[in-house]
Amino acid sequence: MSKSIIKNRIFFFLILNVFLSISSFAQSDIVGKWETREIIGYTNVAEYSLIKEKQQYEGRTVTFNLDGTFSSDEAMQCLSDCFAFTSGTYTMVDNDHIHLIVKNIRFVGLTCGMKKTNKEDFIKDLGIFYIYQEGDKIRLIPSSGVLQDDRDEMLYTQMANNFYKEWRKYDYVWQNTNGNNQQEIINDCIDSKKQIDLSNCKIVFSTKRDLEEFLILKDDKEFHYVIYDSHNKKVSLAYPKNRG
FRET partner for 209 with CA separation of 20 to 30 A, picked from 81, 146, 227, 236? Predict the structure, then answer.
């Protein structure tokens, strides 16, 4: 079996795995109490991770009610600290998106007066979140509300995670670059193995880890990976090693 066929099959199963984990999420599915690491709307976080509460939980939770309201709180263990409780409304934009608005916040604890606790800083429209379901867990990820964009983002994120798990399975040919933006950096990424026509590629995803930037390029047929070392100002394509 040719290398290209194997690569295409691997990519097909990767896409299939992502889409099989995606299911429509109706309002009735989100109603109830969930365990969460963050009080909804209290801290600025990239996303919220929720796990359906199965027994009495002594940490932070969020409860979604049938009437379109929610409340988020945490178990108070010592009044010498400061605890925040938020509440607001939610709307199911569609089966895959939820809109959250924090309408009230209250603080309890002896040290709350020592902290900045202006309600106006927390009462706000949090925007639309994509509901990504993983078993009994859901992730609420900031979204523009376009489902295909959300699904692409999840696919590319999983591709990036898989790459970093298997980075030793690739060869690298490093080139110097003084590029000030992604496209300039890509322009300095010479395909020394003459395997890829970079002129037909566009950047569809990028993510940073420490001083390294990972980019996914896409042409008409497949995806290609690029690594940019911002500390040493070097860039390289990632070439899959020949598995024979």
Answer: 146
Q: Are 207 and 213 in contact (CB under 8 A)?
A: yes
DSSP string, 213-231: EEEEEE-SS-EEEEEEETT
228, two tokens: 């940019």
From CA 75, how far away is CA 113, in angstroms rounded? Answer: 20
Burial class for 218, CB neighbours closer than 10 Å (0-12, 13-18, 19+) = middle
pLDDT attached to residue 6: 43
Residues 206, 226: Cα–Cα separation, whole Å:
9
Do strands 137-142 and 234-240 pair parallel, antiparallel, or not at all (unpaired)? Answer: unpaired
Quote the CA–CA distance of 162 and 155 in Å, as a whole number.
Answer: 11
Q: In terms of residues, how long is the chain?
A: 244
DSSP annotation of 37 reads: S
Name residues whose C-beta falls within 8 Å of residue 36's C-beta, 6 or more positions apart in sequence.
48, 49, 50, 51, 60, 61, 62, 72
Chunked mean pLDDT (size 10), the chain, 244 residues:
46 49 67 94 93 83 96 82 92 96 92 76 95 91 95 95 95 93 89 77 93 93 93 93 62
What is the value of pTM for the model shown?
Answer: 0.77
Residue type, 87: S
Instruction: State residue 4's pLDDT score.
Output: 47
**H helix or E strand, kind and range, residue 30:** helix 27-30
The answer to whether 42 touches 84, Cβ cutoff 8 Å, is yes
pLDDT of residue 24: 60
